[in-house]
Amino acid sequence: MGDGRLSVVVTRRLPEAVESRLSELFDVRLRDTDAPMTRDELAAAVADADVLVPTITDRIDGPLLARAGPRLKLIAHYGAGVDNVDVATARQRGILVSNTPGVTVDDTADMTMALLLAVTRRIPEGLSVMQQGAWEGWAPNAYLGGRIAGRRLGILGMGRIGQAVARRARAFGMAVHYHNRTPLRAPIEEALEATYHDSFDHMLSRIDVLSINCPHTPSTFHLLNARRIALLKPSAVVVNTSRGEVIDENALARALEQGAIAGAGLDVFEHGTEVNPRLREQPNVVLLPHMGSATREGRLEMGEKVLLNIKTFADGHRPPDQVVPGVL
Ligand SMILES: O=CC(=O)O
């Protein structure tokens, strides 16, 4: 902290505008390659920075935090989900954690609808026929998908993203059902015309599309397991734009192979970039490389949130987006 400014280490390349604003305000060490930091690089970063700006590809766990130096006081995460950060251990060590909620809501909800439509209306198949120049013209029986208007959407996790998905689904003429730890307040539920199920199992057997919109926590890990997948209708489709770990990916692959469900649209995977090859082989599965929040606007706004969290902390206050352990 040579000139009295906070020393901030950023673990990944961020949008240029965010990097230059960070550099104006703080004593920043930026990443010069787009590859994630190695474990040793992360350990060196936590050893001597005041503030670490990691992102969702960094594992900030207990052993790494044990190597944190006495100066580390804030982890200003560039990302909404903080399942990669051991928030409880950070707190025990007196390190605050903040994230970037809210600004990824609309983009992630849009991608949920995009995946839903891609799977139910066979968009990748149409795209590939056109790219190959193999289109033989319109035919009454060609490329038939299923209509989504009038279908029931079940949303797992009715936070801000779940509610944004609900609004979109209503506009598409779907009936919205949801499961959450607690029901929405009555006026919000009424505005969304959403039906609450206090039992996830109960909801599963009644819906046509399941959208996963809850965070990954110890209690949501493999929430969609083999037993629950078996409760879905054979015509059901599963969409996940949240975190891969919420689904038992092997169980999902098996259900798709056996035709026990009709399809899946996945933007996130249980083992990150190690995508289960069985999923890749399924024709009724649309896979995307975790791009739900990937808009230019969203990435800049995530940066604004990181800046505000650090700046507020530097001014002696709690960061506005502080993450409290156990509360997501
Ligand atoms: O997945 C993206 C995020 O958590 O920001």
From TrEMBL:
GO molecular function list: glyoxylate reductase (NADPH) activity; hydroxypyruvate reductase [NAD(P)H] activity; NAD binding
Every D-isomer specific 2-hydroxyacid dehydrogenase catalytic domain range: 8-323
NAD found in the keyword field: yes
Domain named D-isomer specific 2-hydroxyacid dehydrogenase NAD-binding: residues: 113-292
One of the record's GO cellular component terms: cytosol
Alphabetical keyword list: NAD, Oxidoreductase
Presence of keyword Amino-acid biosynthesis: no
PANTHER family: 2-HYDROXYACID DEHYDROGENASE-RELATED (PTHR10996), GLYOXYLATE_HYDROXYPYRUVATE REDUCTASE B (PTHR10996:SF283)
Family as reported in the entry's similarity comment: Belongs to the D-isomer specific 2-hydroxyacid dehydrogenase family.
Protein name as it appears in the record: Glyoxylate reductase
Species for this entry: Palleronia salina
